[in-house]
Amino acid sequence: MTAPDDRAPRTDLSALVKAYDVRGTVPDQWDTGTAELFGAAFVKVTGARALVTGHDMRPSSPDLAGAFARGATAQGADVVATGLCSTDQLYYASGALGLPGAMFTASHNPARYNGIKMCRAGAVPIGQDSGLADIRSLVEQWTGAGAPPAPAARTGTVTHRDTLPDYAAHLRTLVDLTGIRPLRVVVDAGNGMAGHTVPTVLAGLPLDIVPLYFELDGTFPNHEANPLDPANIVDLRQRVRAEGADLGLAFDGDADRCFVVDERGEPVSPSAITALVALRELRRRPGATVLLNLITSRAVPEIVREAGGTPVRTRVGHSFIKAEMARTGAVFGGEHSAHYYFADFWNADTGMLAALHVLAELGARQEPLSALTRRFTRYAASGEINCVVDDPPARLAAVRAAWQDRPGVTVDDLDGLTVSGPDGWFNLRPSNTEPLVRLNVEAHDAQTVRELRDEVLRLVRA
């Protein structure tokens, strides 16, 4: 790639380009003009002769995806436009077609946000260290003057292709649900892309689906499409109890994450789901490696070892985990945020495939989900606590200074600050996308969790 001309005017995109995606408000932080530049820069950096795009149901998504395609075709690349799709459906298209891809979504963020998740062919992620910084540099250089013309005179073409049927069929080859017992399942799509994908993926199975907020609406009229916030699964929990359902599933806005509640309407920890799926994958591939981000419950590596697998601890974030999946040859990876990664899905994350595993495991047993997942819960946990702070590095330094010399305590910096002691552990890390620090605490009992939590929060909020 030609080095940017330092004399060219630049726009600072640091607030828009994050560690592993593009994310910001429309139109004040970015618009179709910016999206067109991203399309041109994407082709320049990846060398793509063809690529695939998709977008979610946000009002701004179709225009942004179209502008990106214009920028890409102006550089001579052909574009396969899949239209409305979930993020993992875009990853499917990238893997199955062998093309780089760009998904237009802001995931669980409010309606005024939008973004781009980009990957190379085979759903290989593009993050700051794997091309995103170069893309940002070109967009900054070209802002105002526009992208230079392509070396060749050819303009690429745009073709439209619906990948939903093939995506659904592929997922169904990975998990066999044909012999499960009938299950009643409440699914909260949050007015997001699960309302588009779930009816096709789950069609014809012995499932009685009770739909909740399946209407595609990027203004999110019922609740934010972030199932990790307890406020956003209140309706799902109530409906599961009212329907006498076997379980509930909640998806985020772009449907790449799936959160589970049991038959009592009680949330099931993503760590427990990680353990459940890991055991299923280890039964197919004994001794395989399983990745776990550092905030996952310590119960999960214990369970993986007990099953003969090899747990590997990794930092938070999809681009980092996908790279580790490829490096280690891991069969599966799980995050505390309900992202689940599969070797059989190009190492990419797919909440839908995780949901199929849960349905298959529950449907093969007579016990309720609460009993099935209880065996995977060994410790008490705080859940993720977000604190807005002016100076995250200073807050982490204050917490480190308070703990690093205590007897029996270990401190590491794999991702933020992790402090482990004889009674429990906590992780404090800055957000990649917001002015926050995020605290997670786990210990042998709830009282110790509260004590650790409160001690850390006093320092964070000082």
From TrEMBL:
Its cofactor is Mg(2+). Residues 384-458 form the Alpha-D-phosphohexomutase C-terminal domain. Gene3D superfamilies: Alpha-D-Glucose-1,6-Bisphosphate, subunit A, domain 3 (3.40.120.10), Alpha-D-phosphohexomutase, C-terminal domain (3.30.310.50). Pfam families: PGM_PMM_I, PGM_PMM_II, PGM_PMM_III, PGM_PMM_IV. Keywords: Isomerase, Magnesium, Metal-binding, Phosphoprotein. Residues 16-140, 166-265, 272-379 form the Alpha-D-phosphohexomutase alpha/beta/alpha domain. Belongs to the phosphohexose mutase family. This is Phosphomannomutase/phosphoglucomutase.
